[in-house]
Amino acid sequence: MGSKSSSSMVALAIIALSVVAMLDGCVAQSFCNTSLAELFKCKPAVTPPNPSPPTPECCAVVAKADLQCLCGLKNNPLVPTLGIDLNLAFQIPAKCNLTLPPQC
Fold first, then answer.
1. CB-based contacts of 79: which residues, under 8 Å, 6+ apart?
2. In terms of pTM, does the model score above 0.70?
3. Is-contact 73 42, C-beta < 8 A?
4. Measuring CA to CA, which residue among 47, 54, 40, 57 is closest to residue 93?
5. What is the pLDDT of residues 70-89, one digit of tens each?
6. What is the phi-psi region of residue 44: left when phi exceeds 0, alpha when psi lies from -120 to 50, beta otherwise?
7. Which of 37, 46, 58, 59 could disulfide-link to 89, CB 3.0 to 4.6 Å?
8. Cis omega (within 30 of 0) on the bond before 56?
9. For residue 85, which of 58, 55, 47 has the smallest C-alpha distance?
10. d(CA 72, CA 54)
């Protein structure tokens, strides 16, 4: 793994832990009912400029995740600093034939 990927993973972990501390109802041991490693399976689908379609593995992670909890990231200014496009991220449930919560 290159140093840029390692740096991205470290940054993702730091930001995710900060976000977990800010979100109500999310448990520190897991992140919105899934692990950061599992969420990382969706990174190619949320990274511009040429995101890939979500893989079956990504869809499985999103299907078991607490989508309401993940919705709390929608306006988080730290997430885009990881190279994650929030518009792409919130398209994943539909691409995986899942429905976002109404308040999201």
1. 15, 19, 73, 86, 89
2. no
3. no
4. 54
5. 998 888 888 888 788 999 99
6. alpha
7. 46
8. no
9. 47
10. 21
Q: Which two tokens stand for residue 60?
A: 């499985």
How many other C-beta atoms can be found within 10 angstroms of the C-beta atom of residue 104?
13
Q: 26 with 66: CB under 8 angstroms?
A: yes
**Contact at 8 Å (CB) between 68 and 26?**
no
Which tokens in the block code for residue 88? 């792409």
Give the model confidence (pLDDT) of 34-73 as tens digits: 987 888 899 999 999 999 999 999 999 999 999 999 998 8
Classify 34 as helix, strand or coil.
strand
Q: Answer left, alpha or beta for residue 52, where phi above 0 means left and psi between -120 and 50 means alpha.
A: beta
pLDDT at 4: 53
Q: Residue 80 is which amino acid? A: P
Distance CA 40, CA 13 (A): 10
